Amino acid sequence: MSHTELIAQHGSPSAPQIEVRGVSKVYGPTTVLDDVNLTISPGEIHAILGENGAGKSTLLKVIGGAITATSGSLLLDGEPVTLGSPRDAIRHGITLISQELAVIPQRSVMENVMLGRWSHRAGFAHLAADRVRFDDLLDRTGFTLDPDATVGELPLGIQQQVEILKALARGARVLCMDEPTAALNDVEKELLLRVVREIADRGTTIIIVSHFLEEVLGLADRVTVLRDGKLIETNEASAYTPASIVSLMVGREVDPIDQPPAEVSPLAQTVVDVERLETRHVHDISFALREGEIVGLAGLVGSGRSDVLLGLLGAEPRRAGTIRIRGAEVKENSVSSAIASGMALVPESRKDQALLLGRSVTENVALGTLAQRSFGGWVRRRVERAEVSRVSADVDLRGVGPDTLTVDLSGGNQQKALFARWLLHPPALLMVDEPTRGVDVAAKARIHSLIRDLAARGTAVLVVSSELDEVIRLSHRVLVMRHGRIVDEFDRSARPSDILTSAFTK
Amino acid sequence: MTTLITPTNESSSGPWGVKRLQAKFRDFGIVFGLLAIVLGLSVSTTTFLTPGNLINLVDQATVVGLLAVGATLCIISGVFDLSATATLAVSAITGIWISQTFGFAAGFIGAIVAGVLLGTITGLIIVSTKINSFIGTLAISIIYRGLAIVLTAGAIVSPPAEIAESFRFFAERGPFGLTWASILFGVTVVVLGLMLSQTTYGRRIYAVGGNAEAARLSGIRTGAVRVGVFAISGACSALAGLVLISRAGSAQPGMATGLELTAIAAVVIGGTSIMGGQGAVWRAFVGVMILTVIANGFNLLQWDTTYQQVVTGALILIAIAADSLFFKKRNS
Ligand SMILES: Nc1ncnc2c1ncn2[C@@H]1O[C@H](COP(=O)(O)OP(=O)(O)OP(=O)(O)O)[C@@H](O)[C@H]1O
Ligand SMILES: [Mg+2]
């Protein structure tokens, strides 16, 4: 019987102590991890913090067996181990949960949890036995999950629980979670944090990467700060404040003052005018944005915020309604005509909806506005390089050259590259869906100020974010959505609690 | 180390340019493969490295080569065109048929127009019905072959005797003793290679194949891009058909059957990713040359040609494995 099966069957042998000893990871000329030494005790919640590209994900992947270190070693309970693959790591009770969930959306919760570990009798599925094991897992974690629900139809926060259960079903005693809350709304976030605390209290070690400093300081027992691949400090979480963490991360004092958006001039003209827009998911959407105006869309997940953006862009077929950009009606119902008329979207999922992972940063940034830098269909590469490098500097894209493949960028830098795409040639209406997902505190402030700068230069901006705080800080006005309709409007002096109440109950 | 993005990246690859060298090797490894085979044959035979043999070699590569160039564009944009050689047959037959009434020039142009039209129709069907292109073009190829039989009543068709000589043009010698077919192939590789790597249309092809949803949300008309690719593939098929006519002096409904698969094999061996979004036209050239040189080698060394198939199959497997390994490493 294998080790995993032993663990899976006998419930809870204690989690191993993990020791990272002198680990370095080098890609070509870049040192991504530089002699990292770290000990993580059984059952603790250990947060790894740092700027975008600091090496957090890389460290997590080394511990989770997804990549092997260039030098250094990993010890479990004092025994050196070689983790050549995630499978190896799982065999030792370590599971890596990356931000892109690995669930099978078409199948049920139980099938996903038991994936590859189905009970069977002579090769035939034995559902009743699976059910018993599933209920046992629910008992151990305190989750409430419907085993028969289709995973793809569940909110992201719940899918994350499925992924955690799946790991535990494989006997995981150590969970490495890379930005687990990045894609969650405030309510889901809170739930996940509770869940994480719960399973840690029952003896599972949690190693977590996050850019939400407050929440992570509230959750973690100990904290490690990385900067440029070097371990700067490991200490009790209670020894830090968000501000002190930021200065450790960045290596200098920063003041995170967020400017309010510039006043919209009374002379500003209407940029976009939407009347009774109707798509499969949203109904009777009407609003107007003026030059320089930033409007936030708030609401729960599934309330139709992203669908409004997709509807405007023509990505979801428009069933009724009119859209005017600077007075001219957008007649054709297609993305290319919407973009030609002056709209642009930074979509929610950079991997699925936005990036060509196998292509260079330059190609990705240039993709949205190819025609602007071409001559008779020929790409003017010099101009392209110069302009892409200009906007890359504007968004503070780090650790990459123009030919770096996009897959090799850290998550936060991918997001910055995506944002850079529309800075090349600012549109009349910029729609941003989760503009700062996965970016660090400093970069977030930078993206916020870029959005404000764009607005100051006349672009109208529509912002969707699951962080209510972000929506309020950025916007002049906030529209609240529920069940595919706009139900309320607030100005920026509104209290978050009022907006939340409206989103939930109106 | 954090380097800001800079217009010249020489500095960011370090003093030894290790990363760049590695990247170059990954990119051009297949060229070394071809050179190694060429070198091996040059040493082990006296006949390989003769002008006559080399000229012959390129000429033999042209038909599959032209098809492979078309297939490259299709595969990079994320579709397969299994109807390529059926299109070849119909356009070759159409060309001859037109030439019987209107002469050589009209027939020649007619063949190319037919290829482009058939390619466009294939593209429109695949794009508008959203069927999987592999199955879709397989079905369409059966229809086109049927059409070819209807057009010819199943017989072999030839151009009228007085212009038969004009149709032999591609088999004749041009500069450097190369056949005009070889020159046509070379020009096609260069033109379509430039189109893919230097134009906005080329960028769109990569985008559509690399991530169709991302391309769409960036304002690219993904359907139009793919129809265009099928049309170009149709043109390549028609050119290959004209080369075949120049050799056989005739066309028939079953001509070139199966070569579409050889072409796809060549594309893959050259290193274009079967998953789309990755690859280059010159890779098709290298892939086809590898297949042709191996065939030539078996011939010159008088090895049993049945093993040639084993070698070819193994090469395809190795190429695909290398491709998916690359992706696995990248995405880990
Ligand atoms: N396969 C690779 N080849 C080259 N460089 C890489 C590769 N993978 C990661 N890097 C580089 O290593 C650095 C650290 O990446 P990592 O993903 O660990 O950052 P991170 O701390 O998780 O950042 P983020 O907060 O943005 O997710 C980045 O500069 C990234 O570009
Ligand atoms: Mg990361």
TrEMBL record, chain A:
Transmembrane segments: none annotated. SUPFAM superfamilies: P-loop containing nucleoside triphosphate hydrolases (SSF52540). The keyword Repeat applies. Gene3D superfamilies: P-loop containing nucleotide triphosphate hydrolases (3.40.50.300). Pfam families: ABC_tran. The keyword DNA damage does not apply. GO terms for molecular function: ATP binding; ATP hydrolysis activity. Residues 18-253, 262-505 form the ABC transporter domain. SMART domains: AAA. Keywords: ATP-binding, Cell membrane, Membrane, Nucleotide-binding, Repeat, Sugar transport, Translocase, Transport. This is Monosaccharide ABC transporter ATP-binding protein (CUT2 family).
TrEMBL record, chain B:
It is found in: Cell membrane. InterPro entries: ABC_transp_permease (IPR001851). CDD domains: TM_PBP1_transp_AraH_like. It holds the Pfam family BPD_transp_2. Keywords: Cell membrane, Membrane, Transmembrane, Transmembrane helix. GO terms for cellular component: plasma membrane. The chain crosses the membrane at residues 28-49, 61-82, 102-127, 134-157, 177-196, 224-245, 251-269, 281-301, 307-327. The keyword Cell membrane applies. Its main location: membrane. It comes from the Bacteria. One of its GO terms (molecular function) is transmembrane transporter activity. This is Monosaccharide ABC transporter membrane protein (CUT2 family).
